[in-house]
Structure formats: C-alpha cells, structure tokens
C-alpha cells in the first residue's frame, strides 16, 4: 500500500495538469484535411475523465518471479561456480572427451553447402514445414519399408524439436480426441507434464521406475495401464528413457503393445534419442515399429537435438499414424490450425540441414558413423564409472550404471547426497539423482567417482 | 485375471515375433471424425498460385518481398552474417529466453539506441518465434496474469491475430480502424471506441504499415491516440512487423512507439525480422514488455520464459545469430539500413507507377489510396467478386479482401496488373 501511495506522490499534480493541457492543446489544434479531431469544447464536454488508475504503474506489478527451471537451472548454477574443478552433469547435451560441445562434421558440411548455394532463399516454409524433411523423418523412425508410409497413412509435420512436437500433438488431441487423460511414466522428463497441461490435456501417471531394483517396475506399469480408462493416451519413451535410462526389453515392449491395443489406449511416443542409445538407428526404433506394424494408430514426437547435435536449431517432427490416407489428410489439415496461431511456420535452417544429410547416402552413412561414435563414448563412460566405483569398493549395487541406456543414468542418489556432491565436489546434476553421462570424460570421471563414494559413505 | 495370464503366456513364447491376431482390431480410426480444416486464406493463395500453369500469372498474395524481377531476395548483409556464423559457432541450446545479444539489439531498434528504459533494465524481453510467436507469448501471458482481460483488435487486421488470441483463450473485441469510403483511417470512430472501452483495456496496435490496409495514423493522430490511452489507462500492445520496411527509415517507423513511450505508457511490443531482414523462414523475433522497474522486469521475463518452455523449450539459434551479427557490427548494420531502404523505395516506386497506370487507363475511380497507404500492402477496395475475376480471368493471385502485396509488383507486371484491375473495376 505504501508503495502505491508513493507512486501517486511522485506523479505530482502538475504532471497530470500538464498532460491534460497538452491533450487539450492537441485536440484544439486546427483540423488537417485527412482527419477529424474533436474541438476543445467537445473535449471539455466529453466523458473523458482522468482515470484514477492513470497515475499508477504497470498492470503486471504483481507478477512474481518464476522459479528456475530445475533442469536448465543446473547450468545456471554451474555457470556461477568459479571452481576450476566444476563438472556439469545437468543438461543432456553431448560433450566430447575434451568436455566440449560438438558439431558433427556431417552437419558442418551440410551447413556449408547450404550457405554456398546462391539459389537458396529463406522464405517462409509451409505451415507443416519442409516437405522433404517430413518424408525423410518419417522414413527414419518408421523404416523406409513401413506399410504405414507406403499406404500414405502418416501425417508428418515439422515442429520445434521434441518439445514442439509434443505440444502440437497434445493440442491436436485436446481439440480432436475424445479422451483428455494422458498417462505419463513416473519419473519422466520434467517438462512433459507442463507441455501437456498447457496443451489442454490432463496428465495422469503410471508406475515405471522401481527404485529397489533401479530397473523397470513392469508389474506396476501393467497394473496402472490396465486400470486406465479405455481410450486414454499413453506417453511412451521410445528408447533411452529420460531420466532413468531404463527401457523395457523387446519382449516387454510386445506385452505393452498388446495391453495398449486391447484397451484401445492411444500411444504417444517421444523419440529423442534414436541412434543415440544403442548406436543403431533401427534398433532404437524397434518399439515404435512394433506398434506401427500391427496397423494401429499412434503419435510420434521426433527430435534431432541430440542425435544430430542440432540442439539450438530446434528441429523435430510430429507424425500421426492413421488408419487411412484419407484420415491422415484431414489430420494434417487440422494440425496446421494448431501451428498457425503458435508460430505460423517452423524454422528453416535446422530442417534444411537434416534433409541435406538424410537424402544423401554418403552423408547419411557418415552421420551413422559419427552417431555411433557418440553412443559408444557414452557406453564406455558407463563402463568406466562402474569400474571406478567397484575399484573403490563403494557400497551398493552399481550395475544399473551399465544396464541403463542412453544419455542419462539414474544414480539412485537422493536430494541430500546430490546437494553434498555439489557443495563439496562441485558436481552439478539434477536433484533427482540424474547424471548426464555425456558430460563425463576420463578427466572428470575420477572426481565423480570420489564424490559418489563420499556421498554414499558420509550421508 | 485372465488378461494378465494372457500376457504372461505370451511372454514365455520365445519364437519370432508375429503380431497377435485381433489385438489391433480397431474397427475404425480414432480420428475418422476429424473435419478437413479450411485452408489458411493467406497461405492458401500461394498454394493456388504455384499450381497455376499460366505464364502470365502474378502473385500479389503473401507478404514476402520480391525484387524487380519478381525473385525472392536474400540481403547481402544476411549472406555475410551467415558466412561468419557457419562453422564457427556451436549449436547448443539457447537459454529459455533466447539470445541475450539479439534481444539487446532488438530493443535498441524498437526503443532507441540510447533508451533510458534499456539502461535502467526496465524492459522484460525474450526472443520469440517471429511476430506470430511474440504475439502468442504475450496473449498467453495476458491470459495467465490478467485472466479477466480482453483484447481489442482493429478492423481489419492480419487474420492470424484472431487465431492467436483465440487459441490463448483471451476474449476479443474489435475497434474501428479502416474507413472504406476514404480508404483511409476512420479516426473519429477509432477515438470513440477507445473512449468507450472500459478503463484499462488491452489494445492491439500496428506500429507502422498496418496489415492489410497500409493505412497508418499520422504522427498527430498517434499523439492524440496516446493521450486518450493515457487518460483511459489502456494497455498498448504494438505489433511491429515492418520497422524500416514502411518508410525506409527504422527510426521513423518506430515513431508511434516512441510517442507512446514519451507519454509514459508501459507498452508491450512484438517485433519481427521476417520482412525487414528477409529472415522469414528463420522465425526471428522479440517480445518485450516495459515495466515499472528492473525487479518487475526480471519477474515478468521469468514468467515469459515459463510460457515458452512448454511450447518449444528455447527458441531457434540460427536466425538470432544472424540478427545479432548484423545489428552488432556497425559496417553490417550500415549495409542493412541501405538494403532495407532499397526495398522500401522500390515498393514506394511501384505504388506510384501502379496509380499512374490506372489513372492513364482512364479509370473512373480514385486510386489515391495506393500512394497514401504505406508498407507492403495496398487495400485496393476491390470486392471478393472482383478479386475472383482477377484470379480466374487474369491469373492474378491475392487475398479476397482485395489486399495487394506491393512487394509482388514489378516493372514487368505493373502494366498487366493495372490493366486487369481497370477491367474488373470499370
């Protein structure tokens, strides 16, 4: 209240008087032919009065500062730390053995050829994005010989990486699907519930991670999805589950598929790590292709952030596999209505790079080699960390480090242990115990092993 | 239960996987009821144009600049910026709010190089997905923090404005803007509507080069609008998609905004680099909200970021790098200013030529508005039926509201266009 009063006092009487007289002066000025203005008398007789609010400030004065995003906030904290020993195992962005970000050679080459092409323009893409990119992306995830593609049953739209694909898919479902509930595994990427809530869906949960085994709680998963109302949407991580790194086996995937189809649950896949998990693009797409092969429908959010290192370019695609080509056409037309009021059409640069690579057999092959190298480095870091903890005799079973797959390891460390590691060892990671293996290298791995050992034995 | 038994019995079968018969026996699609969506009126025009095999076809539909040969243009300053960027920088995620360098340069352009508001850190600003993305973020922000507020939108406006605030679930009203008889501004009705709106209403204003009409208030009129806004305590939200592109001078095109700032308004502003830097497909833009003080600006920015995160996490880096490279380098910025003036001058020249041609053809109508209006678009005043004739008989493509994209007019097609317009309007 005091602050509000202060504002009034600062805006003195003479200020308001000055403004009013300026207004009168302007309104009383001689009319120019191109417009009519009201005369001084008209003004004085009019209903305009100085609004009591005029002296006050912003209409957004009551907006409170939002908390830091838990994941991106880790990097913010890391950047503030002045210690030369600091290690960033927060955000899932790949780092080389030297701890540097990586732009793939094949991406650099693709970008150069785009820039050197004088005939290339930067016009608006269609609302659905770069057509060639869309076709190639669908082939990449579903397989070139996929019957769904051959039968033109897939509606694919370019979106802003995985996040954008999930959001557009979510908004489409909120508008056109008969069920609002979306079942999300526990735990999941922190942004998932927010994306779906903003889209107009209702996030529910199903059991996924078993802390006691640091593996999959398959029984819990089956129970929870069996109890979900028919027609509910189910979010599935296609491979390399984020944050746990725990994936179903192929046999378990088959059982999940049968369960979902039997209960008419709609699968919504999030594929952020194709090729990045095992090193093989086809192997990492197995779960998705399983579902497509049975002829049923599904949604698929695809990201090129990690597997092509295109993070900031925001490249991804949403595909909706439909029962018929006719339905796919109508679905695509409705997706445009979701996208247009959000950002009109997607960004050109990253999609052009992807299309350049995917359409060329040589560049495609080169990409698979670089991709496998990234995946292999991470797998070797897993092995090294496991070996280091074994060598130290760190109490506990650490085999989950080598059983889990993909960029992240769910260490099983608790909030207090994590805080301890940050404080004492300058290890930056999310408080749920997740570490990004991509941030590890032979230089900083010993420090992490020390930190884990200390945390587990001290706390 | 029986179902679980079925699952475990399947689990023991180790043989080659075969899709279980009947499991995916969904009789029909979940999405079979989905209606085909109506085509976007603006982007649909280009689609139709591309499909037309006629050699005479002219596209004066979508607002993308063309040179005098009818070709799209990549500015030299943009090509140079890209050469500097490629291979030298990584592609890591930008922060949620986008590139701080790009934001800094965008604000200088909109608020003034030496703006005190920038010095005092009173502006909450985030990188956005061009103008659309900036408007959408603002609409979402308005919905979340002032859920009872509405938005007043001029008639007519860019069609997508309605979609944006609708999808953000912010109720809409309209205010008078275009005067069909004079093909100019309906100033008195506009002022009436501003006066009659409840105090503290939110208004969408086109900062310059109104889309689709090309009709802008004069400087004098902007001052009067600003004063009336002040007495009503209305919130001015500026959509500035054509800074530099309208008059050829970015400072001049920002005049309306500067008038409002001088009058003490706390404005919101959506900026786009799609047209003035030719970065269309890169989706480069900025949303800014002027706050009371630095603390509030920090809070507001943090909340804008929270709205971007569940939409796309963080904005695309490439376009941002181009903008900040150009605006941050005095030589490149100078080149850009020359190039943007070149584009504006060509359009102004085409306006003059089109009008002259129509007058020479002896058209009984007045075509003054072609040169009175400013920016990329000319609101010709033609009816939908006349537009249809232009398309069907002359292969000339434009939106059915009679809006002509002057950027699509060239010395090569202006005569043909004038003749066709004369034929359908005489």
Offer a quick outline of the entry.
Chain A has helices at residues 2-10, 13-28, 40-45, 72-80, 105-115, 131-142, 147-150, 161-176, 191-199, 218-227, 250-262, 281-284, 286-293, 325-343, 348-359, 361-392, 400-403, 415-425, 445-458; strands spanning 87-88, 154-159, 181-186, 202-207, 209-210, 215-216, 233-237, 266-271, 298-303, 316-321, 408-410, 427-428, 434-436. Chain A has 459 residues and is α/β, with parallel strands linked by helices.
Folded structure, characterized:
- The complex is a heterodimer of chains A (459) and B (426).
- Chain A is built from 19 helices and 13 strands.
- By secondary structure, chain A is an alpha/beta fold.
- Chain A has a 7-stranded mixed sheet, with helices on both faces. Chain A has a two-stranded parallel sheet with strand order 1-12. In chain A, strands 5-6 form a two-stranded antiparallel ribbon.
- In chain A, β7 (233-237), α11 (250-262) and β8 form a beta-alpha-beta unit.
- In chain A, α5 packs across α15, α8 packs parallel to α9 (191-199) and α10 (218-227) packs parallel to α11.
- Residues 1-13, 19-24 and 26-55 of chain A have low confidence and may be disordered.
- With 426 residues, chain B is α/β, with parallel strands linked by helices.
- Chain B contains 17 helices and 13 strands.
- In chain B, α9 (219-232) links the parallel β7 and β8.
- At the A-B interface, α2, α5, α8, α9 and α11 of A face α1, α3, α6, α7 and β6 of B.
- Chain A: Belongs to the class-I pyridoxal-phosphate-dependent aminotransferase family.
């Amino acid at each position: 209240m005091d602050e509000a009063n202060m504002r009034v006092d600062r805006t003195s009487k003479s200020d308001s008087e000055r403004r009013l007289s300026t207004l009168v002066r302007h309104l009383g000025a001689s009319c120019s032919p191109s417009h009519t203005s009201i005369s001084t008398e008209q003004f004085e007789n009019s209903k305009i009065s100085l609004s009591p609010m005029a002296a006050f400030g912003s209409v957004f004065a009551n907006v409170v500062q939002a908390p830091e995003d838990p994941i991106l906030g880790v990097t913010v904290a890391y950047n503030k730390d002045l210690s030369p020993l600091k290690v960033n195992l927060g955000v899932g962005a790949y780092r080389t053995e030297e701890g540097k970000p990586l732009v793939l050679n094949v991406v650099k080459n693709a970008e150069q050829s785009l820039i050197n092409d004088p005939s290339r323009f930067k016009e608006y893409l269609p609302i659905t994005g770069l057509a060639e990119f869309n076709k190639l992306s669908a082939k990449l995830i579903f397989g070139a010989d996929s019957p769904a593609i051959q039968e033109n049953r897939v509606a694919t739209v370019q979106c802003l990486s995985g996040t954008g694909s999930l959001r557009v898919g979510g908004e489409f479902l909120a508008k056109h699907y008969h069920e609002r509930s979306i079942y999300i595994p526990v735990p999941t990427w922190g942004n998932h519930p927010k994306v779906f809530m903003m889209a107009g869906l209702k996030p529910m949960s199903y059991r996924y991670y078993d802390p006691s085994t640091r593996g999959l709680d398959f029984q819990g998963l089956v129970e929870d999805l069996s109890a979900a109302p028919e027609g509910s949407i189910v979010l599935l991580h296609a491979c390399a589950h984020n944050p746990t790194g725990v994936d179903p086996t192929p046999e378990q995937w088959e059982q999940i598929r049968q369960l979902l189809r039997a209960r008419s649950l709609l699968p919504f896949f999030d594929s952020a790590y194709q090729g990045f998990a095992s090193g093989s693009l086809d192997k990492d797409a197995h779960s998705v292709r399983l579902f497509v092969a049975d002829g049923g429908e599904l949604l698929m959010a695809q990201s090129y952030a990690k597997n092509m290192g295109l993070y900031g370019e925001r490249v991804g695609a949403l595909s909706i596999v439909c029962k018929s080509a006719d339905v796919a056409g109508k679905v695509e037309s409705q997706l445009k209505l979701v996208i247009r009021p959000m950002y009109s059409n997607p960004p050109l640069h990253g999609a052009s790079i992807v299309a350049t690579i995917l359409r060329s057999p040589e560049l495609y092959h080169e990409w698979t080699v670089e991709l496998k190298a990234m995946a292999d480095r991470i797998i070797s870091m897993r092995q090294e960390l496991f070996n280091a903890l074994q060598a130290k005799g760190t109490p506990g079973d650490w085999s989950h480090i080598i059983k889990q797959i993909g960029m992240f390891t769910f260490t099983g460390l608790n909030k207090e242990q994590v805080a301890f590691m940050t404080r004492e060892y300058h290890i930056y990671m999310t408080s749920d115990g997740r570490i990004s293996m991509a941030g590890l290298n032979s230089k900083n791995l010993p420090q992490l092993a020390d930190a884990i050992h200390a945390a587990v034995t001290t706390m | 239960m029986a179902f679980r038994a079925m699952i475990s019995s399947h689990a023991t079968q180790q043989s080659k996987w075969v899709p279980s018969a009947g499991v995916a026996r969904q009789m029909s699609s979940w999405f079979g009821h989905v209606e085909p969506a109506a085509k976007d009126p603006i982007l649909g025009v280009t689609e139709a144009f591309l499909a037309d095999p006629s050699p005479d076809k002219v596209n004066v539909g979508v607002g993308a600049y063309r040179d005098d040969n009818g070709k799209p243009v990549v500015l030299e300053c943009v090509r140079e910026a890209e050469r500097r960027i490629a291979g030298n920088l990584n592609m890591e995620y930008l922060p949620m709010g986008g590139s701080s360098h790009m934001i800094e340069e965008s604000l200088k352009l909109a608020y003034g190089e030496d703006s005190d508001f920038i010095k005092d850190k009173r502006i909450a600003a985030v990188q956005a997905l061009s103008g659309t993305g900036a408007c959408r973020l603002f609409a979402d922000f308005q919905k979340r923090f002032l859920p009872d507020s509405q938005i007043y939108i001029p008639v007519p406006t860019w069609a997508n404005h309605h979609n944006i605030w609708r999808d953000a679930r912010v109720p809409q009203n309209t205010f008078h803007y275009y005067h069909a008889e004079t093909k100019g501004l309906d100033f008195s009705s506009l002022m009436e509507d501003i006066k009659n709106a409840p105090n503290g209403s939110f208004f969408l204003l086109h900062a310059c080069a109104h889309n689709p009409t090309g009709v802008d208030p004069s400087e004098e009129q902007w001052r009067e609008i600003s004063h009336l806004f002040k007495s009503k305590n209305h919130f001015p939200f500026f959509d500035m998609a054509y800074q530099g592109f309208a008059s050829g001078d970015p400072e001049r095109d920002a005049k309306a905004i500067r008038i409002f700032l001088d009058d003490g308004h706390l404005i919101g502003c959506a900026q786009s680099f799609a047209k003035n830097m030719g970065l269309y497909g890169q989706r480069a833009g900025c949303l800014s909200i002027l706050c009371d003080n630095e603390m509030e600006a920090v809070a507001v920015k943090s909340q804008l970021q929270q709205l971007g995160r569940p939409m796309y996490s963080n904005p695309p880096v490439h376009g941002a790098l181009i903008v900040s490279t150009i605006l941050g380098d005095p030589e490149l910025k100078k080149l850009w200013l020359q190039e943007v003036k070149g584009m504006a001058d060509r359009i102004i020249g085409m306006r003059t030529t089109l009008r002259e041609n129509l007058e020479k053809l002896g058209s009984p109508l007045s075509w003054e508005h072609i040169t009175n209006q400013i920016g990329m678009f000319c609101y010709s005043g033609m009816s939908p039926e006349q537009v249809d004739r232009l398309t069907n008989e002359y292969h000339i493509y434009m939106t059915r509201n009679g809006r002509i994209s002057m950027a699509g007019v060239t010395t090569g097609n202006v005569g043909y266009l004038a003749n066709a317009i004369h034929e359908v309007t005489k």
